[in-house]
Design goal:
This protein is of the alpha/beta class. It has a single domain, classed as 3-Layer(aba) Sandwich (Rossmann fold), CATH 3.40.50.880. About 30% of the residues lie in helices and about 20% in strands. The strands form 3 sheets. Strands 4-1-5-6-13-12-11-8-9 form a 9-stranded mixed sheet, with helices on both faces. A two-stranded antiparallel ribbon has the order 2-3. A two-stranded antiparallel ribbon has the order 7-10. A hairpin with a 5-residue loop joins strand 11 and strand 12. The chain is globular. The chain starts with a strand and ends with a helix.
Length: about 260
């Protein structure tokens, strides 16, 4: 059986001051290849380049990656402030309807960091602009100095809901993860179930209630060392299995209609 194709959402960048590019981190692409056993396909975050339906038809699932720009607060009914940071409105316009369309159809999605926040906003949730400014909360941002290994090092525990989907998937109710984010969930969306928290109460794991397909998302970065990490690998592996099932279902549907 051929490997499923998983779309990896890219981010917009400007190089040499005026040359616009789309890029996705290689560790995201390798995580899909090595831990999901799938073909990674980088998807530019620009809705003007394709129709939503043809994009969905080109992939068996989607990874909504992290990124430096944040979801614009207008998407959850709040005014923009300096604390909200930078934005990528084209990505907002692509991913929010894409998330909803995939969930409604049962097409697998995996949200990571900003992608985790996008899933929440897509279903009517809101975000805090800066977690570390909240009373009693820790600084979850990436360390400003050090090697890449040091920046992605394990930072805190996450406790999952007993017998919830993450507990069942990981085989443990408490796991250790990295932490590289500034924003976080303020109010969960209407169908968003928070299934895991950091020690300071910050939501770290969610899924979409009554979603017919895989809909798990995490606030940490499981793409780092995904093939070897005992927390990352089962997450990407289960996502890959869901994408294989979607591909098989689609192939059977095409044969039945032939």
């Amino acid at each position: 059986m051929s490997r499923p194709v998983i779309g990896v959402i890219a981010n917009s960048h400007v190089i040499s001051d005026d040359y616009h590019v789309q890029a996705a981190g290689e560790i995201n692409l390798r995580a899909v290849r090595d831990a999901s056993d799938a073909i990674p396909l980088m998807i530019p975050a620009d809705p003007s380049l394709f129709d939503l339906d043809e994009l969905r038809a080109s992939c068996d699932g989607f990874v909504f990656t992290g990124g430096r720009p944040n979801v614009h607060p207008a998407e959850y009914g709040e005014e923009e402030t300096e604390a909200h940071g930078t934005f990528d409105r084209a990505r907002d316009q692509l991913v929010l309807p894409l998330i909803r369309a995939c969930v409604d159809a049962g097409q697998p999605i995996l949200g990571i960091c900003r992608g985790f926040q996008e899933v929440n906003v897509a279903f009517g949730g809101s975000l805090y602009p800066e977690i570390r400014d909240l009373p009693g909360r820790d600084n979850h941002r990436m360390p400003p100095d050090g090697t890449l290994e040091e920046k992605f090092a394990m930072r805190h525990q996450i406790t999952f809901t007993e017998s919830g989907p993450f507990h069942r998937l990981m085989g443990s109710q408490v796991v250790l993860t990295n932490s590289l984010h500034g924003q976080g969930i303020k109010e969960p969306g209407e169908r968003i179930v928070i299934d895991g928290h950091a020690p300071d109460g910050t939501p770290e794991a969610i899924y979409v209630k009554d979603a017919p397909g895989f809909s798990l998302s995490v606030q940490w970065h499981p793409e780092w060392n995904a093939a070897m990490d005992p927390v990352s690998r089962p997450l990407f592996s289960a996502f890959g299995d869901a994408c294989r099932a979607w591909a098989a279902k689609r192939a059977n549907g095409m044969r039945d209609s032939a």
